[in-house]
From TrEMBL:
Protein name: tRNA (guanine-N(1)-)-methyltransferase
Lineage, opening ranks: Bacteria, Pseudomonadati, Pseudomonadota, Alphaproteobacteria, Hyphomicrobiales
EC primary class: transferase
Domain of life of the native organism: Bacteria
Organism: Methyloceanibacter stevinii
The protein's assembly and partners: Homodimer.
Record's keyword terms, sorted: Cytoplasm, Methyltransferase, S-adenosyl-L-methionine, Transferase, tRNA processing
Family label: Belongs to the RNA methyltransferase TrmD family.
tRNA methyltransferase TRMD/TRM10-type domain location: 4-226
């Protein structure tokens, strides 16, 4: 079955955007994955195709209406493979992780609801049991770029998209560590040499050096990951 992404958005023209290029674009053209961008405004009731209204209780900005978002979600669910999870991209969602991406990539696909304005009426999230997922601790102006991020992270894990799938096993997060540093020719550049061990041909030594580097980087830059990994091991 083809992995299918359905995006609910106010800007369908933003898709596939960068995902139409490079490896993801080639895979899309070859039918390795499918992308359906649905305009939420198609589910509006009035001639202005409005999808938002003022916040109950007052305050700044506008809120996306539950009835219109729900109609869009129901249509997306009906057209998606059975068991496709629905996600609302949201800065207050559960942080996206490589483990979460792997679960999504191994499933039938994903429905991604992109917010705009101040966000979505809470009732639709509760009534349709939609998971909220954040791509980081900052606020974007809309969920569309976040949807691209989720899809890109998933699509590169689909069979046949990345030439050497073995690279996934060594990438950052695969083992709970950040990845070791890479080097390539020239052997010396601006007075900086490639570490000798990488040119030694001794695969055991190279693996040990990479492991040390990955551990040191993780401890320094991501003490949260390091502690989590230590706890998981004990
Ligand atoms: N009022 C919201 C808040 O403070 O949490 C922010 C709304 S933001 C301007 C508009 C939309 O962008 C959100 O509904 C969400 O879909 C998307 N968005 C913004 N930041 C995001 C993030 N870090 N991760 C995922 N989606 C995000």
């Amino acid at each position: 079955m083809t992995w299918k992404a359905t995006v609910l958005t106010l800007f369908p023209e933003m898709f596939p955007g960068p995902l139409g290029l490079s490896l993801a674009g080639k895979a899309l053209a070859e039918g390795v994955w499918q992308l359906d961008a649905i305009d939420i405004r198609d589910f509006a009731h009035d001639k202005h195709r409005s999808v938002d209204d003022t916040p109950a209780g007052g305050g700044a900005g506008m809120v996306m209406r539950a009835d219109i978002a729900a109609a869009a979600i129901d249509a997306a669910k009906a057209a998606a493979p059975a068991g496709t999870p629905a996600i609302y991209l949201s800065p207050r969602g559960t942080p996206l992780t490589q483990a979460g991406v792997e679960v999504l990539a191994h499933g039938p696909g994903v429905i991604l609801l992109c917010g705009r304005f101040e966000g979505l009426d809470q009732r639709v999230l509760d009534a349709r049991e939609i998971e909220e997922v954040s791509i980081g601790d900052y606020v974007l102006s809309g969920g569309d770029l976040a949807a691209h991020v989720v899809m890109d992270a998933c699509v590169r894990l689909l069979p046949g998209v990345v030439g050497n799938a073995g690279t996934h096993d060594e990438e950052s997060f695969a083992s709970g560590l950040l990845e070791y540093p890479h080097y390539t020719r020239p052997r010396e550049w601006e007075g900086h040499a490639i570490p000798d061990v990488l040119l030694s041909g001794d695969h055991e030594k190279i693996a040990a050096w990479r492991r040390e580097q990955a551990e040191a980087l993780t401890k320094k830059r991501r003490p949260d990951l390091w502690d989590w990994r230590r706890k998981a091991k004990s």
